[in-house]
Automatic annotation (TrEMBL):
It is an enzyme of class 1 (oxidoreductase). Keywords: Amino-acid biosynthesis, Diaminopimelate biosynthesis, Lysine biosynthesis, Methionine biosynthesis, NADP, Oxidoreductase, Threonine biosynthesis. GO terms for molecular function: aspartate-semialdehyde dehydrogenase activity; NAD binding; NADP binding; protein dimerization activity. The gene is asd_1. NADP(+) binds at residues 11-14, 39-40, 159-160, 328. Belongs to the aspartate-semialdehyde dehydrogenase family. It catalyses: L-aspartate 4-semialdehyde + phosphate + NADP(+) = 4-phospho-L-aspartate + NADPH + H(+). This is Aspartate-semialdehyde dehydrogenase.
Amino acid sequence: PMPTLAVVGATGAVGAVMCDLLSSRRNVWGEIRVVASARSAGRKVQCRGEELTVQALRPEVFDGVDVAMFDVPDEISAEWAPVAVSRGAVAVDNSGAFRMDRDVPLVVPEINPEQVRNRPKGIIANANCTTLAMIVAVAPLHREYGLRELVLASYQAVSGAGQVGVDTLHDQLAKIAGDRVLGSRPGNVRQAVGDDLGPFPAPLALNVVPWAGSLKEAGWSSEELKVRNESRKILGLPDLKVSATCVRVPVVTGHSVAVHAVFGTEVDAEGAREALRNAPGVILVDDPAAGEFPMPIDAVGTDPSWVGRLRRSMDDPRALDLFVTGDNLRKGAALNTAQIAELLAAELASR
Ligand code: 2RA
């Protein structure tokens, strides 16, 4: 029999993309159960051409489930992933609750697929969307040259903050449309947008906001620490130097990262391009003369990390500069989770 899958958080921004993906990827699942909070129970969701009824999150919903995916906030995952495991499922968690737990592997199938089998808690974690977009492109360069340091700035889309982030940006754009004075005087965008900033600390329309997540020690944001800690864990480089500045931009979907990567050996741009051309999950889009760069408007709705603007540093023969864009809801969330779940389905099938 084909394994049974539960999708927890099926009605959220990532859950909706997950249902799309499950409808378009090679089908490895028997029954699919869609699960959400009691508030969403009874709603209908389209998946694999079937209309599925959303079930409320409760322990019994995991009975008979082989793999349970969680696309829910940290505290819901922290409570419910162990419940799913206790009912016999393997949990694949897209929240931040377990990523840095020593007994939970942090898996990116293009990079460390073997880690799925190393799951003493029955839980496998999916990385943060910003880490994922970048790491798929950085890993092949690490294999080639030996990574020592990452200095990066992100350009993160509003859907990283969920559907409420998308609604907030579109509401703000509607409020400012047509007023050609906005953006030319201090404060006038703030006035036009009003007090409702949604999940963001400042207006996103006509602006960039150098902040994502919550305040942590010494002025770092939670998002910046995630990129550092998760990159180290995924690459198996506990001492990797990472300096990240995470920035929110008025883009609906598609996180981008400008990366300065320092390696242990000298690099050459053509060799790096060749490594990226051969890397799984990467598409090289690097023809500035033709106006071809990785950009969210092109990467949205696609699977790979788009990489371009690749240059060898002018001042350090061991460093590369590059720009990466990936769909934060797909590779950054639902797709990576689906790929991990498919590795588990293959493992179950081989038993
Ligand atoms: C964001 N990385 O973009 C977060 C979501 N997980 O807000």
